[in-house]
């Protein structure tokens, strides 16, 4: 077993229940929430890329990451609550998540002292981890969200990294955090593949 912030999702969803009820009353759709989260992530990423020396933007990134996680949780809750789960919505959710991740991670390349190959490796491996989670469906398993470095965990890790940038902590520590994230991503990839294969497709009964 490996701990992941994703395991706290049920409690987090309980806290979001009042927001969910309000959105449902206003007939907001899950896809609108998904697109909003993606567009806000792109906008914040562009702001970071344009003003990488602005400590306030880096300081605000952990807060934005929390807001993004809330929106990501709400779209799924809203889809279930209003019975609006669709194949298009599922695809949009996966694609939007990867676009948002890239938009918020790549601006770190402009931070002085960041080891660029390490950052690129983290970004690529994060994408591969999520691909493995989706590919588990091909093995007859459910969509895998195993940790220890899933989407929520990466949001936390890069939130911490943003704080280090904001407070101008030496680049040695920034790269150390990235190195730890990289190792945990490798562990996560192994976990998702292993657990997907533990739940193979069941042959149809006659």
Automatic annotation (TrEMBL):
Keywords linked to the UniProt accession: Membrane, Transmembrane, Transmembrane helix
Membrane spanning residue stretches: 35-59, 114-139, 160-190
Pfam families: CDP-OH_P_transf
Record protein name field: CDP-alcohol phosphatidyltransferase family protein
């Amino acid at each position: 077993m490996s701990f992941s912030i994703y395991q706290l999702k049920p409690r987090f969803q309980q806290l979001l229940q009042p927001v969910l009820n309000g959105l449902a009353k206003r007939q907001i759709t899950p896809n609108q929430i998904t697109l909003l989260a993606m567009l806000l992530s792109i906008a914040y990423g562009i702001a970071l890329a344009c003003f990488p020396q602005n400590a306030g933007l880096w300081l605000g990134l952990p807060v934005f990451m929390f807001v993004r996680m809330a929106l990501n949780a709400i779209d799924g809750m809203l889809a279930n609550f209003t019975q609006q789960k669709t194949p298009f919505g599922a695809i949009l959710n996966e694609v939007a998540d990867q676009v948002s991740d890239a938009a918020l991670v790549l601006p770190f390349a402009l931070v002085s002292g960041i080891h660029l190959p390490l950052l690129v490796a983290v970004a690529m491996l994060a994408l591969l981890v999520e691909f493995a989670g989706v590919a588990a469906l091909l093995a007859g398993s459910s969509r895998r969200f195993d940790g220890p470095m899933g989407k929520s965990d990466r949001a936390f890790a890069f939130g911490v990294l943003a704080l280090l940038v904001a407070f101008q902590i030496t680049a040695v520590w920034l790269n150390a955090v990235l190195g730890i994230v990289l190792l945990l991503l490798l562990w996560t990839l192994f976990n998702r593949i292993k657990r997907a294969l533990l739940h193979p497709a069941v042959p149809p009964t006659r």
